[in-house]
Amino acid sequence: VNKVVGLTGGIGSGKSTVAELFAERGVTVVDTDRISHQLTGPNGGAMAAIEAEFGSTVVRKDRALDREAMRGIVFSDPGARVRLEAILHPLIRAESERQLCLAEGPYALLVVPLLFETGHYDALLARVLVVDCSEEVQRHRVMQRNGLDEATVSAIMAAQLPRAERLARADDVIDNNDGLAALTLQVDAKHRYYLANLVADSA
Ligand code: ATP
User: Fold this and answer.
1) 152 marked among binding-site residues
2) Does residue 145's CB lie within 6 angstroms of at least one atom of ligand 1?
3) Would the CB of 11 count as within 6 Å of ligand 1?
């Protein structure tokens, strides 16, 4: 049985970048965001349940979720988000576990952007690794990447767990304030640490 390391961090903190570096080192990466997108993409595995719950107005011709229509519903009805998550979460969880079971090597990485906010995966994880950078660096990178203004990015950040709380709940932290070279060195160090300390259970 593989050990699972949960990877989380605020928006734009560098989760995908860090996950890619672990993948380059041969670690299996399971990304809950990617699974969620597949489930709600064309003919995705969640679409039948979503259509039954919200009607055909949220289903596009290619049988993908109409994200804009769904956003409209969730915006005017907060309960709709809960119902959507009640459909998606068990499916994301099942597919994550399926992929983790196939993983080779002593440990695998599970990327969960809202890991602490939802608490859904706590029992599955041997360690929680947080990617961290200052809020200033974070804001700057998200504004650049998404072409968003500062107020919009600040609003998204305010809806997530505060940085200090995320750090307090981490087992391990990667500092992503500097460039890719510094980041790579830290991923190497964490990878070595996990290889040495996360021993697969027998059975
Ligand atoms: P999201 O929460 O939106 O999924 P994320 O946490 O996965 O984001 P990334 O997409 O990895 O974050 O990084 C956010 C942006 O910052 C990207 O454009 C990425 O290329 C850039 N970035 C990440 N780390 C660094 C770094 N050390 N130096 C410079 N740019 C970086």
Assistant:
1) no
2) yes
3) yes
Q: pTM of the entire structure?
A: 0.94
Structure-block tokens of residue 118? 């939802």
- 137 alpha-carbon distance from chain centroid: 20
Residue 71 falls inside a structural domain: yes
> Helix count (H) and strand count (E) of the chain?
10, 5
Which ipTM value was assigned to this complex? 0.98
**17 labelled binding-site residue:** yes
The C-alpha atoms of residue 28 and residue 192 are separated, in whole angstroms, by 15
Full residue range of the structural domain in which residue 133 is found: 1-27+105-196
Asked whether residue 140 is domain-assigned, the answer is yes
Asked, for residue 201, whether it belongs to a domain, the answer is: no
**Same domain (yes/no): 184, 142:** yes
Tokens describing residue 141: 């990178």
- Determine what percent of the chain is predicted with pLDDT higher than 70: 98
